[in-house]
Design brief:
The complex is a heterodimer of chains A (628) and B (174). Chain A is α+β, with helices and mostly antiparallel strands and 628 residues long. In chain A, 38% of the residues lie in helices and 23% in strands. Chain A has four domains: 21-234 and 313-390, 2-Layer Sandwich (Nucleotidyltransferase, domain 5); 237-308, ATPase, substrate binding domain, subdomain 4 (Actin, Chain A, domain 4), CATH 3.90.640.10; 397-516, Substrate Binding Domain Of DNAk, Chain A, domain 1, CATH 2.60.34.10; 520-627, Substrate Binding Domain Of Dnak, Chain:A, Domain 2 (Up-down Bundle). In chain A, the strands form seven sheets. In chain A, strands 1, 2, 3, 4, 10 and 11 form a six-stranded mixed β-sheet that branches. In chain A, strands 17-12-13-14-18 form a five-stranded mixed β-sheet. In chain A, α5 (236-250) crosses α6, α5 crosses α7 (299-312) and α13 packs antiparallel against α14. In chain B, α6 (95-113) packs parallel to α8. The longest helix of chain B is centred in the last third of the chain and has 27 residues, at 117-143. The N and C termini of chain B lie far apart (42 Å). The model of chain B has no long low-confidence stretch (mean pLDDT 90). Classes of the chains: A alpha+beta (628), B mainly alpha (174). Chain A binds chain B through residues 178-179, 219-222, 224, 315, 318-319, 322-323, 378-381, 386, 388-390, 396, 408, 411-412, 414-420, 442-444, 475, 477-478, and chain B through 28, 31, 34-35, 38-41, 43-44, 54-55, 57-59, 61-62, 64-65, 117, 121, 124, 165, 168-169, 171-174.
Chain lengths: 628, 174
């Protein structure tokens, strides 16, 4: 046996093994993957040399297509081509904006958003997992090996349900999630660590579907998030939609087919993007009913159409400044993130508000993925850079009290991780159970907040009302995810509870989905090896049993016992229900070999007897022919 | 890490247990402590160690929150000296004070209903000015060690803090 070689601690001249870590910006419209290579963050590109992978998934007859190829199918196969799935994460059908028409067949009674596709029902977690799988494959192809871990970015304003859904999608795609990172924070990391400049940064992040504002301070290697604000229902898609409505109105169109709606939405986006370089844009489209749309839109018209949307982004900016107890003059730099910040009216509004030129030197589409890859690189221990990120929770956490009101336990913008405890008591004599309802949001009424979990604490020792002391601890970890535990304090009886989220998937569901997604071919192969081993074993048992009946006089003392003992073990093993085919195959093969061993001498004796019997009165050639 | 969890907040931040503290200093101390004990520094370690860092890092944040807030700091300091104030059941206030409370609450509700961000900011500024005066008073009473007189301004302080929280949640709502 070869011994392992271990070098003396001081002598280990081999350079530290580099762990590949990736940062993924899982965007509403596009997704990007980046990594840090020899100290520099780089965006990875696919075989066509493209960095931006459209977050679009098409479910074909027996294919799952992601990216640009899926984007093309959006017009011809809208019902099976899922776009902007990020808007559905951690959401139920009731949460959908009734003003937006979707070309999908939603499963309406489901607790979370599910879409009936050609390949059956898919929920938002599965669709996102398909995007992440494709990004993971891109990274593996590009880097030549699999990443040990990934940092995935989420909008700062994502609530617990949306964060958990994102984490589940990543796990389902087989990624080791090092951290969920807020997108604006990632952008600030990319700029801040790039310039090594200390100060206060405001990140203005307008993506496809969400708008986030974050204010961060970089001081002595610590990145501190001071405030987070935003609007989860505002993004570039809304600009497309405004333009789309304007085009309909200007061309007197109504009652479009799903295909034409999809086509015009794609065209609206193209028109919008052209306004960053053109004064006027001509639109020329032929609809499915051969009707031609031919209009000219000027930049002034465009600015008018989107004026309200642009102004809508300034309120979260003001709120964030107020939360951080800062004025706009305190901001050293404004960082622009998200493809929508290329729009000129947006840049103009920001420039006017701060009387300062916003930073745009890093590609606004890539900056988040770059920041995520820098954080991922630190978390896997590749760098000695001594910097730290202190983030906050974007939404208040509370519990329901009498009358359906919310009592805040952890206010928004609290630095995380954070743990806070609260004591409750009973209302009636002998009460042994109580229900606790945890919600997230800023509104006074529980009904207006998002329900996170509702659980019943049982096993409270029966006492006079008001005597038990139940201590509930709410812990938010560095990913922004919540766990709740409870203890009865007065008697020392501890009843620990675990909160099951009232949305999304349970851990077991993820496990079973993961198991299903493991390559079926591999499983089939294991199954076949198993069946072959069983057939061999059965044949051996069969032949030995027949031999014993025929030639029991040839058995030596104790030989019969040994043979039947092993043979019985093998029969039991074959009859047993299998959950691990590889292991069962090995066990059956081992027992088959043992049975061969213990019956070997008996078989030889029979063989000798048979030969001598058959040779009586026959010549050699006859024996040979008979034995053929 | 276990040892640090047994320290009180002042000990944890290596500062004297007094009311008049240097905010910038505790900010720096908080950053230094988090640089050592934040879960990100333990992400590659055994789950027990990672969990301990989660608990300690949360404890550091709680200590910072308590020390940075004049009201929480005053209550915590009194508790260390064996004085517990039950703010929930302290309801004796002057007529004028209660009337003012009601007026401010109505003003906040109106501003919220009108979605008036600037008006809410103006109310908040007034409340902060009043809070500042009470903090000054509390500071003097701590310095001169007249703890028997300190409960009244702390009670009032707690009301101004509550009103500011109401402003904050109103701003978040609009």
């Amino acid at each position: 046996m070869a011994l392992l070689q271990i070098a003396e601690p001081e002598m280990s001249g081999v350079p530290h093994q580099r762990n590949i870590a990736i940062g993924i910006d899982l965007g509403t419209t596009n997704s990007i993957v980046a990594t840090v290579k020899s100290g520099e963050a780089v965006v990875l590109s696919d075989q066509d040399g493209k960095n931006l992978i459209p977050s679009v998934v098409n479910y074909g007859e027996d294919t799952v297509i992601v990216g640009r190829a899926a984007q093309k199918l959006r017009v011809t196969d809208p019902a099976n081509t899922i776009v902007s799935v990020k808007r559905f994460m951690g959401r139920s059908f009731a949460d959908l904006d009734p003003e937006i028409t979707y070309p999908y067949k939603f499963v309406k009674q489901a607790s979370h958003i599910q879409i009936n596709t050609r390949q059956g029902i898919k929920d938002s977690v599965q669709v996102s997992a398909d995007i992440l799988k494709s990004l993971k494959a891109l990274a593996t192809d590009s880097l030549g090996e699999e990443a040990v871990g990934a940092v995935i970015t989420v909008p700062a304003y994502f609530d617990d349900a949306q964060r958990i859904a994102t984490k589940h999608a990543a796990e389902l795609a087989g990624l080791n999630v090092l951290r969920l990172l807020n997108e604006p924070t990632a952008a600030a990391i990319a700029y801040g660590l790039d310039s090594k400049q200390e100060g206060i940064f405001l990140v203005y992040d307008l993506g496809g579907g969400t708008f986030d504002v974050s204010i961060l301070r970089l001081n002595k290697g610590v990145f501190e998030v001071l405030a987070v604000s935003g609007d989860t229902h505002l993004g570039g898609d809304d600009f497309d939609h405004r333009l789309f409505c304007y085009i309909l109105q200007k061309s007197n169109l109504s009652q479009l087919s799903d295909e034409d709606t999809a086509l015009l939405l794609v065209k609206s986006r193209e028109v919008k993007e052209q306004f960053s370089i053109k004064e006027k844009v001509a639109l020329n489209v032929v609809l499915s009913n051969k009707k031609i749309v031919n209009i000219l839109i000027t930049r002034v018209e465009f600015e008018e159409i989107v004026h309200n949307l642009v102004q809508k982004t300034m309120l979260p900016v003001k709120k964030a400044l107020r939360d951080a107890k800062l004025s706009k003059d305190d901001i050293s730099e404004i960082i622009m993130v998200g493809g929508s910040t290329r729009l000129l009216p947006i840049r103009q509004a920001v420039r006017e508000f701060f009387a300062k030129e916003p930073l745009t030197s890093i590609n606004p589409d890539e900056v988040v993925a770059i920041g995520a890859s820098i954080q991922a690189n630190v978390l896997v221990g590749n760098t000695k850079d001594d910097w730290l990120l202190l983030d906050v929770t974007p939404l208040s956490l509370g519990v329901e009290t009498m009358g359906g009101l919310t009592e805040k336990i952890i206010p928004r913008n609290s630095p995380i991780p954070v743990a806070r405890a609260q004591e409750f008591t009973t209302y009636k004599d002998g009460q042994t159970a109580m229900t606790i309802h945890v919600v997230q949001g800023e509104r006074e009424m529980v009904a207006d907040c998002r329900s996170l979990a509702r659980f019943t604490l049982r096993g409270i020792p029966p006492m006079v009302a008001g005597q038990p002391r139940i201590r509930i601890t709410y812990q938010i970890d560095a990913d922004g995810l919540l766990t709740v535990s409870a203890k009865e304090m007065s008697t020392g009886i501890i009843s620990q509870i675990e909160v099951k989220p009232s949305y999304g998937l349970s851990g077991d569901e993820i496990q079973s989905m993961l198991a299903e997604s493991i390559d079926n071919a591999d499983k089939d192969m294991q199954m076949r090896f198993y069946q072959e081993a069983v057939v061999d074993a059965k044949a051996l048992i069969d032949s030995i049993e027949k031999a014993i009946i025929q030639d029991s006089d040839l058995l030596l003392d104790g030989e019969m016992d040994k043979i039947s003992h092993v043979s019985m073990q093998l029969k039991v093993k074959i009859a047993r229900i299998v959950d691990d085919y590889t292991e069962a195959t090995t066990q059956i093969k081992n027992l088959t070999n043992q049975l061969n061993d213990v019956s070997n001498n008996f078989a030889s004796r029979r063989m000798n007897q048979a030969i001598s019997a058959s040779l009586k009165g026959k010549n050699v050639s006859q024996v040979l022919t008979e034995n053929e | 890490m276990d040892k640090l969890l047994k320290l009180n907040f002042f000990e944890l931040f290596s500062i004297e247990p007094v009311f008049n503290i240097n905010l910038e200093q505790i900010q720096n101390n908080m950053r230094e402590l988090q640089k050592q004990y934040h879960p990100d520094k333990y992400s590659n370690q055994a789950i027990e160690v990672a969990n301990q860092s989660l608990i300690l890092s949360s404890y550091i944040n709680e200590a910072y929150r308590t020390l940075a807030s004049p009201l929480l700091r005053a209550l915590y300091l009194l508790k260390l000296r064996g004085v517990e104030i039950d703010l929930v059941h302290e309801t004796k206030f002057s007529h004028a004070f209660l009337l003012e409370q009601i007026e401010v609450r109505e003003a906040i509700d109106d501003a919220r209903d009108n979605q008036d961000f600037d008006q809410l900011l103006a109310i908040e500024n007034e409340l902060q000015a009043k809070e500042q005066k009470l903090v000054q008073q509390v500071n003097e009473l701590f310095t001169s060690d007249k703890l028997e007189l300190i409960i009244e301004p702390i009670k009032q302080l707690s009301f101004y803090v509550k009103l500011q929280q109401l402003v904050a949640s109103s701003i978040a709502e609009i």
